[in-house]
Write a structure and sequence with these properties.
311 residues, Rossmann fold, 8-stranded mixed beta sheet
Length: 311
């Protein structure tokens, strides 16, 4: 598939936004982690602005700050808990004003995006614990489980599964369903796509992902089920949609996750989009394939909201 000139322009802008991440990982230059994060968030927010018709505010979720995105119309008090990507070391909520704004409008849902702490200042398990704490805060804020869904991308896509597992194991209500976008669910990078797609994906490469993983993991093994959900016990989780780009180095991990979920009796839908790259849905509003994939995510979650309210 040939990408349009607009998509190529956006990809170049995204790559420029992340140049500080490469610099700090290589330990060349004087850029700090916080400076690299700030630059990434500012440039991505400018590149992919929020759509009209949504409002943004900062809220507290039991000590975890979060961005709350509210569309003009909210249907049946719907809530989407969205976990941003960035390898657990970069990214930030303001970089996702575009995608979460489109999500909020199309789904008719308030979107909570936790601003969790990140490595290397806060290695595993702090980022995951922050997100789970924020998820549990949804209930103290008065939201009913039948109105709550999960979504996230990359590291946040893996968190879709991990947060459902943690909720299941802690006796906390599960969401009605989850959408994992380009989930980073195998930090061993042992799947075939890590080799066959490494030169195809313009966003993520094994050369980037390997040091990101080590920065986040500390002394934790990459096979830990909390960081690589393909190694986890998955029974009893909510229906899950996995969206993968065919050119992603993470493709094998996403396909393996779908297989493991299905084997463990979780209702699972896998979509693999030919020619698409890592987290192409960020380009919603600019790219037809991103809009269509986001619409599919919205349709999936809408059905799950309705099933939950009818039960």
């Amino acid at each position: 598939m040939t990408l349009t000139a607009k998509t190529q322009e956006l990809l170049k802008g995204w790559q420029r936004a992340g140049r500080g991440i490469y610099e700090v990982l290589s330990k060349k230059g004087t850029v700090t982690w916080q400076q690299a994060r700030d630059t990434y968030v500012e440039e991505l927010a400018a590149l992919l602005p929020a759509p009209d018709g949504v409002a943004f505010e900062t809220v507290d979720m039991d000590g975890v700050p979060a961005m709350l995105v509210t569309p003009e119309t909210v249907i049946d008090d719907r809530v989407l808990f969205y976990m941003h990507g960035g390898g657990y070391v970069h990214g930030g909520v303001n970089a996702y004003r575009g995608l979460t704004g489109h999500y909020a409008k199309r789904l008719g849902a308030r979107v909570y995006v936790p601003d969790y702490r990140q490595a290397p200042e806060f290695i595993f398990p702090t980022p995951i614990n922050d997100v789970f704490r924020a998820y549990k805060a949804l209930f103290s804020l008065g939201h009913d489980p039948s109105s709550i869904a999960l979504s996230g991308d990359s590291a946040g896509g893996a968190l879709v599964v991990t947060i459902m597992r943690k909720a299941r194991d802690a006796g906390v209500p599960l969401p009605v369903g989850g959408v994992a976008i380009s989930p980073w669910v195998d930090l061993t990078h042992s799947g075939a796509s890590a080799k066959t797609r490494n030169d195809l994906d313009p966003v993520a490469s094994v050369d980037l992902l390997t040091p990101l993983a080590r920065t986040f993991l500390g002394n934790t093994l990459a096979t830990d089920p909390d960081v690589s959900p393909i190694f986890a016990e998955l029974r009893g989780l909510s229906p899950t949609l996995i969206l993968m780009g065919e050119n992603e180095v993470m493709l094998s991990g996403g396909m393996t996750l779908a297989e493991r979920l299905a084997e463990q009796r979780v209702r699972t839908t896998l979509e693999v989009w030919p020619g698409m790259f890592h987290v192409w849905l960020l380009f919603a509003g600019f790219m037809p394939e991103a809009d269509e994939a986001l619409d599919n995510a919205v349709d999936f979650l809408t059905r799950e909201y309705r099933r939950a309210r009818a039960s």
